[in-house]
Amino acid sequence: MKQIFFTPGPSQMYPTLFGHIQTALEEYIPSISHRSEKFQTIFQETTDGLRNLLHLPKEYVIVFVASGTEAMERIVENTVEKKSFHFINGSFGKRWFETAVALKKEAKAYEVPFGEGFAESPHIEKDTELICFTHNETSSGVSIDPEFIYKVGRENPHALIAVDTVSSAPYVDLDYQKLDCVFFSVQKLFGLPAGLGVMILGPRAIQKADFLHKKGINIGSYHSFPHLVAWASKNQTLETPSVFHLYLLGKVVADMKRRGIQTIREEEEKKAQLVYDFFDKHPLYKPFVVKKEDRSITVIVVTLGEKTEAIKKKLKEQGLVVGGGYGPHKKTQIRIANFPAITKKDIQRFLKAITTF
Ligand SMILES: *Cc1c(COP(=O)(O)O)cnc(C)c1O
């Protein structure tokens, strides 16, 4: 039976992926050397495509790691000698904070209840080196207004600003000049298989890593910023990377570019509107995030209560696979990934199915 994955990672495959995988195999992509010219062309096409799609400033560098979680660790490792600060409103923000603690940093946090956004900008100590935001908290379905992030950045000009956009890129339209490190992984909105993370590094972040390194601080080895950036300037990676992934990402990015980033963003908003309107009017099932301005466009969390497991099962029987609630909310909530690979028709099918339960 045909299945549609509304799950927030891994997710529904981007519709053109099938064709690209076939072409990749016909072109022997998995077998080519990562030191070949062909590889350098793939690396360049993929990074140029992303730069163009996301409107990145020229001096920002795109590098590749294994996952979003790896990016969290690399960013802390390369930009913090002592102090980081974390905005936490769900499990991924917490994971980043715990990563900093594990790396023996003095990590401080401003945490708000699950399902809520940040009401105010907290006091952040002047010697804080890095401030971390999860733009779209996939666990709770809360999204932060980028203006809030920029404001905290302006209030703390001494600190670097890092943003997790794993479940919102390329929907989120960011002013990268105001940010220092941004990352995402490809199994969410890009609709690719999991296992590749993308980091966007600004000049201040790269300089900070160099500074810490010269000071004798451990910034890691092969995936330290200086190493990643030096290899990227040659359109290469030190390790044997997932060439297959880099190739597929480049192709999907080109498809998204053809569809138009503005069109994609508008479609995302229209589809989200359908879902929120439906559940706002529903007598039993409600959007989990109460405040409209906190609601994520890309990951929608709905409280179904005790019937959750039974409803999920019935949806699955119709080929509609939705995500469970995160952590303690597993049995009472569902999460719906409203990613570009999900069409308006898919959303309508899902809503129609829900009306029968
Ligand atoms: C999925 C997700 C991650 C983790 O990404 P991995 O590639 O699985 O390591 C981090 N942050 C957010 C917001 C996510 O949705």
Comma- or semicolon-separated keywords:
alpha/beta, globular, binds pyridoxal-5'-phosphate, seven-stranded mixed sheet, single chain, five-stranded mixed sheet, 357 residues, 11 helices, 14 strands, 40% helix
What does this structure look like?
With 357 residues, the protein is α/β, with parallel strands linked by helices. It has eleven helices and 14 strands. The strands form three sheets. Strands 2-10-9-8-5-3-4 form a seven-stranded mixed beta sheet, sandwiched between helices. Strand 6 and strand 7 form a beta hairpin. Helix 1 crosses helix 8 and helix 2 runs parallel beside helix 8. The radius of gyration is 20 Å and the shape is globular. The mean pLDDT is 97. The site of pyridoxal-5'-phosphate (PLP) has 13 residues, from helix 3.
Summarize the structure.
The chain contains eleven helices and 14 strands.
Bound molecules: pyridoxal-5'-phosphate
Radius of gyration: 20 Å
Number of β-strand runs: 14
**Main beta-sheet annotation:** 7 strands, mixed
Q: Element order, helices and strands?
A: EHHEHEHEEEEHEEEHHHHEEHEEH
Discrete helix count = 11
**Low-pLDDT stretches:** none
Shape: globular
Average pLDDT works out at 97
Separation of termini? 21 Å
Quaternary state, please?
Answer: single chain
Q: Determine the fraction of residues in helical runs and give it as a percent range.
A: 25-40%
Question: By helix and strand content, what is the structural category?
Answer: alpha/beta
Strand content: 15-25%
For the biggest β-sheet, the strand order reads 2-10-9-8-5-3-4
